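Supplementary Text 2. Reproducibility record for the structural model of the 69-residue chain.

All settings were left at their defaults, and a single model was retained for analysis rather than an ensemble. We include the record here because the model underlies the residue-level annotations in Supplementary Table 4.
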Amino acid sequence: MQLILKLTEDKRNHIANERKRKRTRREMITMIEGMKKKEGKKEILIMVGLIGHFVRDAAIALTMVDSSL
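Retained model, structure tokens:
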């Protein structure tokens, strides 16, 4: 019974993390689109680099926003 509860809790945490990640990815896309109007590509890449712990999501967001990067 204890193991089943633990697995359920892990699954719930995983789903919650996925939801958070999708939201942050969406926010990042919005932010990058806003920056695209103001600054050049190099600045966008630096800004995305500063969002360090979302590196993979940042890369995905970048390619979704502007595939020419």
